[in-house]
């Protein structure tokens, strides 16, 4: 944040530069009108105040008038305030002198003038249009006369609450400004001002005489600067300690609206969450000031429009009108009609995609959601989930996370089983997209909801196993181990050796530490091997090959787990090998045989050979697998792995020793 912008203004360098250029023209006698437009809280008033300070530093005087939204304000109220400001700075007697014969025309606006003139303002014999012309001309003449003494900046703020007469007066004055050293700044909310029919004509006239300067939301970097300034001002730690992810979350929630940003930052600072990365795991709070501003903005809408927005808020920050129509059981035409007013008010915005809309601010959506009771919100989520499920039945994959979201929020309304199912499916999809953190979130939500359902070890194993694998991939080893311990317990309850084997193998990536032996991991691998060896043999070739692959991988991982053990070889399981007859051993994808080839250490070859030999059974495995553990060349190992991956049965390959014998002959 630069000094020139002042402590309360961030990210308005471009707008300030344009105002500075307009002031330069005014100082040279070529005045004009600049109109600042934008939504509530965008920073129109802050920009104007900062600029007035800069204009004062350059030698200009100023006068400020603000419209009143509470009702009961007299006509020309912003101009009354400007005249009062000039009376304070110049003196009433001076104003009377400058006005001359025109003073009575302004006496009706400024009581101080009437008192100085010694007689109340008299009603004019001119018709209304002529009288108003004289009033406006007197106003313009006074501004010109004051500006001849010192260049003048006048600000008329919140003109969306002005009476039409005040705008007509501004339109008149604006046409005379090019011949005066006067810069006028008018600020208003574009949508609200144009929504008032009585102001439409006056605003159209202003457009012909003004330079329009619309204000947009701050970008992420400017939100970061504002956060740093707020932290410094509140004494909340060092600005550089604010987590970048928190800045991003605030920017996304506020759409860069400075008022919303500031309210959020102040509340986060009061709660001690401004520097706390854990705050990102909880929804951002909605400050009271923001709630009040948004509620006032929603108040003019008809009830049916508000109800439509509430349903849209449940669907999400972005929604399709077709989905909204299905949820509310209305036609698309009816939905579009109900959205007209919110679109005009800038509450929702039409997206580039036809039929798609989004909320201008996440905080608007949050306010709408807060108006819903827990039961009603859950019901709307359930209806939305059912609607999306039906709409995307043919291709649900891209929408799994969205459908899961709604079913999860509708769990209390009978959607618990669908919530768990869709959340697990969405989590698997996230893993496939390498979005491990998102997968973790979905699995955890699914586990929470599943706790409300009847116990099911099979489902529980799937969820804990998926969570453990996702956490391991995300680098959260401790959390992964906790989840996999739970998965192992469910596998034991099911008496399912294959599931236990997969859980044991999933525990290995983050469990090897130099110089250490992990007793729990060793015990789990040995237990999995023992249970797998005790399992009955399968007649199905593919199933038998899969089990043999698991057994082989377990042996290799056990050899690695015992690398730093003082034992010269891993303990033998109670039964070595399963089944009495020869079997085809297909190397499954990612089987880990190459890992054994890279093992080094005083007993590594013994352990790896032992593990691999046990993995292929008693006398039925091929020495090629042992060669990999024994340090075979990289080329031969690569070729053999390719052969295994291609599905070539190792038991049908000639032993390496026999090949060498045939080669010699």
Instruction: Give the helix proportion (percent range).
Output: 55-70%
Number of helices: 32
CATH architecture call of the largest domain: 3-Layer(aba) Sandwich
Largest sheet: 5 strands, parallel
Low-confidence runs (pLDDT<50, min 5 residues)? 1-7, 572-665
Count of spatially separate domains: 5
User: What is the CATH T-level topology of the largest domain?
Assistant: Rossmann fold
Give the C-level CATH assignment of the largest domain: Alpha Beta
Query: Using only CA atoms, what is the Rg?
Result: 38 Å
Spatial order of strands in the largest sheet: 2-3-4-1-5
Average pLDDT figure? 79
CATH superfamily of the largest domain: P-loop containing nucleotide triphosphate hydrolases
Structural class: alpha/beta
Strand content: 5-15%
Could you explain how this protein is built, in words?
This protein is an alpha/beta fold. It folds into five domains: 212 residues, 3-Layer(aba) Sandwich (Rossmann fold); 66 residues; 81 residues, Orthogonal Bundle (Arc Repressor Mutant, subunit A); 109 residues, Tetratricopeptide repeat domain (Serine Threonine Protein Phosphatase 5, Tetratricopeptide repeat, Alpha Horseshoe), CATH 1.25.40.10; 171 residues, no CATH class. Helix content is 60%, strand content 6%. The protein is built from 32 helices and eight strands. A hairpin with a 5-residue loop joins strand 7 and strand 8. Helix 11 packs across helix 13 and helix 24 packs antiparallel against helix 25. The radius of gyration is 38 Å and the shape is elongated. The N terminus and C terminus are likely disordered.
